[in-house]
């Protein structure tokens, strides 16, 4: 089991639940930043500053003192600017904007507000620092730290959380979904989590190397729909990096995750999930280990009987030094890879095995055009006619259960240039060198029209194997890869 039940009430009602239920009784807080690029409507502008007063009118000259007071004043089209400084509070935002008149809570341009929860807020660790309960809200640019629970919860729909720095949380950094068991239909829809940096979360598990329960740095769970998690950096967390569970039609793309204890990307009871153009790696000196091993790159398991995962696509991802590159394990009878596509990924130097798929109720799933390279085992796969393998490149001969037409055996000839230290790995490390056996050796897949950099496939006489098309030139569509948004960071 991967998740902690964080509400005693829910635990009593649902003894079998292993998923988190953050902020069940939250009284919570919100803030954000604009970098001068937010889409601000012509509503009222309010201001919060550490030298203000909640008896003030909230103007720039006479700001509010608390974010909670500012948030309570907001209506459609309004903007709340939070000046730099340290705040100690929780805020619950229940007001809603509209599609044409968003509510914006943002850091004052050029300043850095910080909510320092001092490891005492929320008093109940099932609570949160910020809850977006309304709809059409943008939260941007706040740093949140030292949280005695979860930092941000998205309960409403059509909300965006971006440009946040969140760290040192007992539980989740950002949670999208309902704080209850997934039983009453869709909980919320069309939320976006983008361009955030999150580290040192799930501290409830710090230093525990076997057993226990975990949260995710970014969790999409309990029946949200159409959530997009993109261009985030997650690192050094004592739990899971980015996860979608009991969730529908989730997209995880262009994220980078390193040195987390458990799965870096984890799909669990999440039909119609797309995992694309993400990077995952562990450094040799990582201390975030479970049973002596670093986190898995990409993993899938249905922990609950419902909703059953199906139609999941895992394409154009880069994974280095996972204990496993891709791992399917089973906790429910009949669960399996059902209409999965695992294609054009590059898995390198997995410490246990590059690809592991245990027995399950597999159906019509394809594993094509992937690179599995390293000195260790390349595959441990159950023999199953519902798993179709072809045109993969293996650094050594795989077992017969994973072999397929068009396979290549040998060194993929990757660039492997530059640092692989924390926050320093450039995705170009995974690019193909001239004369790589992966070049023009893949099978055409209409579901994978571009590569990791947005280069259209094919660039030669055929599709290349792995996440990159061999191409001498700048990326055709800059902006699809995370590196176009973030410099190397190490906090």
Assign an overall shape.
elongated
Which fold does the CATH topology of the largest domain refer to?
Pectate Lyase C-like
The CATH class designation of the largest domain is Mainly Beta
Please report which band the strand proportion falls in: under 5%, 5-15%, 15-25%, 25-35%, 35-45% or over 45%. 25-35%
Low-pLDDT ranges: 1-21, 24-37, 478-491
Biggest sheet descriptor:
13 strands, parallel
Q: Helix/strand/pairing class, anyone?
A: mainly beta
Number of strands: 39
**Overall CATH architecture of the largest domain:** 3 Solenoid
Q: Please, could you describe this protein's structure?
A:
Helices cover 2% and strands 29% of the residues. The two termini are 30 Å apart. Strands 1-2-5-8-11-15-19-22-25-28-31-34-37 form a 13-stranded parallel beta sheet. A 13-stranded parallel beta sheet has the order 3-6-9-12-16-20-23-26-29-32-35-38-39, with no helix packed on it. Residues 1-21, 24-37 and 478-491 have low confidence and may be disordered. Helix 2 (67-72) links the parallel strand 1 and strand 2 (79-82). The protein is an all-beta fold. It folds into two domains: 23-170, Single-stranded right-handed beta-helix, Pectin lyase-like (Pectate Lyase C-like); 188-201 and 210-491, Pectate Lyase C-like. The chain is elongated, with a radius of gyration of 22 Å.
């Amino acid at each position: 089991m991967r998740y902690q039940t964080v509400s005693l009430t829910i635990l009593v009602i649902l003894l079998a639940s292993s998923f988190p239920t953050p902020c069940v009784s939250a009284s919570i807080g919100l803030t954000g930043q604009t970098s001068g690029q937010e889409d601000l409507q012509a509503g009222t502008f309010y201001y919060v500053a550490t030298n203000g007063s909640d008896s003030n009118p909230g103007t720039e000259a006479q700001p509010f003192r608390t974010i909670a007071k500012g948030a309570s004043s907001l209506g459609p089209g309004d903007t709340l600017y939070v000046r730099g400084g340290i705040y100690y509070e929780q805020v619950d935002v229940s007001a809603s904007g509209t599609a044409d008149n968003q509510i914006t809570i943002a850091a004052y341009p050029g300043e850095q507000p910080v909510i320092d929860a001092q490891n005492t807020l929320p008093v109940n660790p099932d609570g949160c620092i910020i809850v977006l309960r309304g709809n059409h809200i943008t939260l941007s640019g706040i740093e949140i730290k030292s949280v005695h629970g979860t930092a941000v919860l998205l309960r409403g729909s059509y909300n965006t959380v971006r440009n946040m720095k969140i760290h040192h949380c007992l539980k989740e950094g950002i949670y999208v979904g309902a704080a209850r068991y997934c039983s009453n239909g869709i909980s919320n829809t069309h939320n976006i989590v983008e361009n955030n940096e999150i580290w040192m979360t799930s501290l409830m598990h710090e230093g525990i190397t076997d057993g226990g329960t975990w949260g995710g740095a970014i969790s999409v769970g309990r029946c949200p729909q159409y959530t997009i998690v993109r261009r985030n950096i997650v690192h050094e967390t004592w739990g899971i990096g980015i996860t979608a569970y009991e969730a529908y039609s989730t997209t995880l793309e262009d994220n980078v995750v390193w040195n987390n204890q458990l799965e870096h990307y984890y799909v669990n009871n999440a039909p119609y999930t797309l995992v694309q153009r993400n990077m995952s790696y562990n450094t040799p000196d990582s201390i975030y280990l479970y049973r002596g091993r670093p986190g898995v790159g990409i993993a899938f398991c249905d922990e609950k009987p419902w909703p059953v995962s199906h139609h999941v696509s895992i394409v154009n991802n880069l994974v280095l030094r996972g204990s496993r590159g891709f791992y399917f394990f089973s906790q429910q009878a009949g669960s399996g890879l059902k209409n999965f596509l695992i294609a054009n990924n590059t898995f390198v130097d997995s410490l246990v095995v590059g690809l592991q798929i245990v027995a399950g109720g597999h159906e019509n799933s394809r594993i094509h055009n992937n690179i599995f390279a390293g000195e260790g085992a390349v595959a441990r796969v159950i023999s199953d006619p519902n798993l179709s393998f072809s045109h993969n490149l293996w650094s050594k001969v795989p077992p017969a259960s994973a072999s397929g037409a068009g396979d290549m055996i040998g060194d993929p000839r990757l660039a492997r240039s530059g640092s692989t230290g924390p926050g320093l790995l450039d995705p170009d490390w995974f690019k193909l060198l001239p004369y790589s056996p992966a070049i023009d050796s893949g099978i055409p897949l209409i579901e994978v029209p571009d590569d990791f950099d947005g280069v259209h496939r094919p660039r030669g006489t055929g599709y290349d194997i792995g996440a990159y098309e061999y191409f001498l030139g700048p990326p055709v569509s800059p902006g699809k890869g995370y590196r176009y948004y973030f410099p190397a960071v190490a906090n």
